[in-house]
Design a protein that fits this description.
The structure holds two protein chains of two kinds.
Chain A: E1 3-7, E2 10-14, H1 23-30, E3 49-52, E4 55-58, E5 71-73, H2 86-94, H3 103-116, H4 122-128, H5 139-154
Helix pairs in contact in A: 2-5
Chain B: E1 4-6, H1 11-20, E2 25-27, H2 38-41, E3 46-49, E4 59-61, E5 65-69, H3 74-80, H4 86-94, H5 98-103, H6 106-112, H7 119-126, E6 129-134, E7 137-142, E8 147-149, E9 152-153, E10 160-167, E11 173-178, E12 189-196, E13 203-209, E14 215-216, H8 218-231, H9 237-254, H10 260-279
Parallel strand pairs in B: 1-3, 2-3
Antiparallel strand pairs in B: 4-5, 5-10, 6-7, 6-10, 8-9, 11-12, 12-13, 13-14
Helix pairs in contact in B: 3-4, 4-7, 8-9, 9-10
The chains are: A alpha+beta, B alpha+beta.
The complex binds flavin-adenine dinucleotide.
Chain lengths: 156, 284
């Protein structure tokens, strides 16, 4: 089938797509956006988290056929003209990255949280990250990074 | 073999497709579809995607009833029902992960009615109804008549679940579950309790699942209802102990296969849920 949708503000028209091909595979294999990782492919790890029309979803659970007309934001889309954005910067500063496999998904989940709630508590951050596993178990620093990013966003 | 993927945008179009292709795979949030083995899906050549049908996102509130469209995601339903049907809102908030709650739908949950899912006990406790629609019209089924046998619902091959209806603002309600961990996992045990305080004498409805499919605990309901009418707003500790025993016995009678550790944890979850609704005495 043929689908037209946007990724990080850029329109893509893809032909010959199998309807059940997942968004995660499309991003990586067809569009070369390998920031999105595929861990479990069953919605259980969160490594492939992206935003569709601003809502956080697992890209592995989105069939290609449902993408028509939608807007996808991946970790590559977080970058600004000045470089990495403040959530990513906070991850760097807090040392919230070990092997890095979960990082893109964590950052997308953090973005979804911060756009809904500018002043989250650590409890709310933990709750917002419950769909993202870190196999290095570096959760504490990840939570710290999101907390710092929130403070930075408020300009405190 | 090619695959047809239909994306109806109106309910009329969706119902026509459903009638024409009763064997097509219906889907909405696709969270279940995408986790099915590809070999199991290879038998399907047609898919009817309900996610663009506007009518399935509608909602309206009547004097005593609140109706939400089948395409409501768990996340949206959790917000929308938070104050009017809190047990269902809490069950929606307990499902999987934020990602799954953003995509999985109420219609999908009801269609699947998985034996250990979060929603079914909450739907039973609050007395929800399922609205089913075909090209010839709609029928409304009490949730109790929906699951005939495990994995066997009353959905006819030409029907679509179009909405869920809930009695609103009935009184205190709560939902609690216990799983291997808080996120990602289906509950091992779950309890939902709703006090209908709109009746002259408040009635307590109790439903649970222990991986067996949700069911009501009528003996426990009678006990809690009588105790509530006699004791007023503060649940004394002895009531909790007695209630614990009744729930455990009911589960043992329900199925000999429920291990003791599951029965006792389930009874503890039920007591906690009862204490929460009971203490929420402002509504009584
Ligand atoms: C990672 C993960 C974790 C999960 N954790 C939990 C959990 O903790 N607790 C829990 O209860 N559930 C859990 N689930 C299950 C989840 O609740 C269901 O997958 C979801 O509700 C299905 O809804 P959907 O719209 O995505 O269904 P789809 O995948 O679109 O469809 C599923 C089924 O429902 C039918 N269907 C869908 N909509 C309709 C309709 N309107 N009318 C008739 N039939 C319809 C379809 O025919 C299909 O058979 C989890 C799922 C995943 C992937």
């Amino acid at each position: 089938m043929e689908i037209t949708f946007e990724v990080n503000g850029q329109s893509h028209n893809l032909a010959g797509v199998a309807p059940l091909e997942s968004l995660a595979v499309i991003l990586r294999d067809r569009l070369g956006l390998t920031g999105t990782k595929i861990g479990c492919a069953t919605g259980h790890c969160g490594a492939c988290s992206v935003l569709i029309d601003e809502r956080l979803v697992n890209a592995c659970l989105v069939p290609a056929a449902q993408l028509q007309g939608h807007q996808v934001t991946t970790v590559e889309g977080l970058e600004t003209s000045e470089g990495i954005d403040n959530v990513q910067q906070a991850f760097v500063e807090a040392g919230a990255v070990q092997c890095g496999f979960c990082t893109a998904g964590m950052e997308m989940a953090a973005h979804a949280l911060l756009s809904a709630l500018s002043n989250p508590t650590k409890e709310q951050i933990r709750s917002a990250l419950t769909g993202n596993l870190c196999r290095c178990t570096g959760y504490q620093k990840i939570v710290d990074a999101v907390y710092q990013a929130a403070i930075g966003l408020k300009g405190v | 073999m090619g695959t047809d993927w239909f994306r109806p945008i109106s309910l009329e179009e969706a119902l026509e497709l459903r009638m024409t292709y009763p064997d097509a795979y219906l889907l909405c949030g696709a969270t279940h579809l995408m986790t099915q083995p590809r070999t199991a899906l290879s038998q399907y050549t047609r898919f009817i995607d309900l996610s663009r049908v506007e009518q399935l996102y509608g909602c309206h509130t009547e004097e005593c009833v609140i109706q939400v469209g089948a395409a409501f995601s768990y996340a949206r339903a959790a917000d929308f029902l938070a104050s009017t049907v809190p047990a269902v809102a809490q069950a929606c908030r307990s499902v999987g992960t934020p990602q799954v709650r953003n995509k999985g739908t109420l219609g999908g949950a009801v269609a699947l009615s998985l034996p250990n899912a979060d929603l079914p006990p909450a739907l039973l406790a609050v007395g929800a109804e399922v609205v089913l629609t075909s090209t010839v019209g709609s029928r409304v089924l009490p949730i109790e008549a929906w699951v005939c046998e495990p994995s066997q619902t009353s959905l006819q091959p030409d029907e679509i679940i179009t909405a869920l209806r809930f009695p609103r603002d009935q009184g205190p309600q709560a939902y609690h579950r216990l799983g291997r961990r808080a996120a990602f996992c289906f509950p091992e045990v779950a309890a939902a309790i709703a006090i209908d305080a709109t009746l002259p004498s408040p009635y307590v409805r109790i439903a649970m699942t222990v991986g067996t499919g949700a069911f009501r605990l009528l003996h426990a309901e009678q006990f809690a209802t009588e105790a509530l009418s006699m004791m007023g707003t503060e649940p004394p500790e002895e009531i909790g102990m007695e209630f614990y025993g009744i729930v455990e016995e009911t589960l043992a009678a329900h199925s000999a296969e429920i291990p003791e550790v599951v029965r006792t944890s389930a009874a503890a979850v039920a007591v906690r849920t009862l204490q929460e609704v009971w203490s929420d005495g402002d509504h009584l």
